[in-house]
Amino acid sequence: MISGNNMKIEQFGTLLLQRSNEGHFGNAKINNSYENQFAAKKTEGSFQSFLMDAMNTVNTQQTNVSKIQEKLITDPDSVDIHDVTIAMSKARMSLNLAQNVIDRLVSGWNEITTTR
User: Alpha carbon 75 to chain centroid distance?
Assistant: First the structure.
């Protein structure tokens, strides 16, 4: 059970989580447009528009990571390193997912064209 900065683990009792430096809290906000974008969309539309929206989301995540990294270099006190790491992981995961989808589409298309 987690509540605020306290975490209760039955084997260890209650642990108090503290940060070593107040400046590490950061005030940068990570954009969660991926979840919001697809939650708000209706299921109507073409497969092409869905793929284009997904690619635009991947591109947006990649550019957000670049902006956060640039901000980390120019103004390190305004960005939490954990936010940068999380943004990079999200962008890498979405890029890997997009690559897998593209590979599956290409292999499926190759199978369709060879069976004709």
Answer: 22
Q: Is the dihedral of CA 99, 104, 107, 113 positive or negative?
A: negative
Residues 6+ apart with CB under 8 A from 91: 58, 61, 62, 64, 65
Predicted local confidence at residue 2, as pLDDT: 43
- CA 48 to each of CA 44, 56, 75: distance values in angstroms, whole numbers, following the listed order: 12, 12, 40
pLDDT tens for residues 70-80? 998 998 888 88
pLDDT tier at 63, thresholds 50, 70, 90: very high
Burial class (CB in 10 A: 0-12, 13-18, 19+), 80: buried
Evaluate the CA torsion angle 32, 37, 43, 46 in order and state its sign: negative
